[in-house]
Amino acid sequence: MRISVTVSGLSMLYGEDLSGLVETARVADAAGVDQLVLTDHVVMGPRTDRYPFGRFPFPLEEPWPEPLTTLAAMAGATSRLRLGTGILIAPLRPAVLLAKTIATLDVLSRGRVDLGVGTGWQPEEFQSSGVPFVGRTARMDDTLRACRVLWRDAPASFVSDTVSFENVWCLPRPVQEPLPIWIGGGLSPGNLARLAEYGAGWMPVAPSLDELREGSQKVRAAFRRAERDPTSAGVRGAVPPVRGEQGVDLERSLEQLGGLAEAGATDAAFALAAFVRRPDQVRPFLERIGRAGENL
């Protein structure tokens, strides 16, 4: 399994100096962590009670740096670390601009981008961006299909209900062929179809081991039906923090990695803010999970 860290809790860990995110990437790169993942909110509306995955874990004042910009800075400070989004709200971004930005990041990082996408859950993000909230799922599909055409063809043409262009050049192309697109959320029929068509992997939100096991089997069956290699399907499993008398017990938390692998996970995902509470804890945490990854 790869060791993946979702960078979260920015106000708690970095305060006003968010340039510390770049230093975190340097440390993770040297420690042997395989991937850093950034989440995406263009704006935050007041109705966090609409969050569909339980209690929203951060205050309204939490900063959300634009992920592709931040990953570009991280790319310049690292040499082996993979750079992921989890998730990027794809339907908020024009297809040609998203294709250009992702391809540029992949070129500058020498092929280290993992594009994790989803539809978002806040109407406010879409309304304030001048993009309809209704129909965002179809817009995401059109956007990603258009990106794949732009990354492949020059000149490129594409026609759909929400994205169309004819005989355009969008260069440079990504280094990776194909660039990995990970699909966030549950395994609805639509998401299974996306995974089978163009997905590299599945990113569920905090699944139980049973849910992860069942889901990984469904994903690999969908790959098989699409005549794709089922062993190539990625599955990201969350590592929940195990708490002891002194707070999070990292060693006991790491004991869960075997169960994740048995359930079909290819990536073990740690949420940074769930495991560390102070800036001085970031480096030891990354170094410890990096060592754990060497034994997987």
Written account of the structure:
By secondary structure, the protein is of the alpha/beta class. The protein has a single domain, classed as TIM Barrel (Alpha-Beta Barrel). It contains twelve helices and 13 strands. The chain is globular and about 60 Å long. It starts with a strand and ends with a helix. The mean pLDDT is 95.
Largest sheet geometry: 8 strands, parallel, barrel
Q: Architecture, according to CATH?
A: Alpha-Beta Barrel
Number of helices: 12
Alpha carbon gyration radius: 19 Å
Write out the CATH superfamily name.
Luciferase-like domain
Tell the overall outline.
Answer: globular
Oligomer: single chain
Please report the first level of CATH classification, the CATH class. Alpha Beta
Portion of residues in helices? 40-55%
Could you give the distance between the termini? 6 Å
Mean pLDDT: 95
Order of helices and strands: EHHEHEEHEHHEEEHEHEEEHHEHH
Integer tally of domains = 1
User: Using DSSP, what is the number of strands?
Assistant: 13
Strand content: 15-25%
CATH topology: TIM Barrel
Can you tell me the residue ranges where pLDDT is under 50 for at least 5 consecutive residues? none
- SS content category: alpha/beta
Strand sequence of the main sheet, in spatial order?
A: 1-2-3-5-8-9-10-13
Please render the helix and strand layout as text.
Blueprint: E1 2-6, H1 10-14, H2 20-31, E2 35-38, H3 67-76, E3 82-85, E4 88-89, H4 95-108, E5 113-118, H5 123-129, H6 136-152, E6 156-159, E7 164-168, E8 181-184, H7 189-198, E9 201-203, H8 209-225, E10 234-238, E11 243-244, E12 247-248, H9 250-254, H10 257-262, E13 267-271, H11 272-275, H12 282-294
Parallel strand pairs: 1-2, 1-13, 2-3, 3-5, 4-5, 5-8, 8-9, 9-10, 10-13
Antiparallel strand pairs: 6-7, 11-12
Helix pairs in contact: 2-3, 2-12, 3-4, 4-6, 7-8
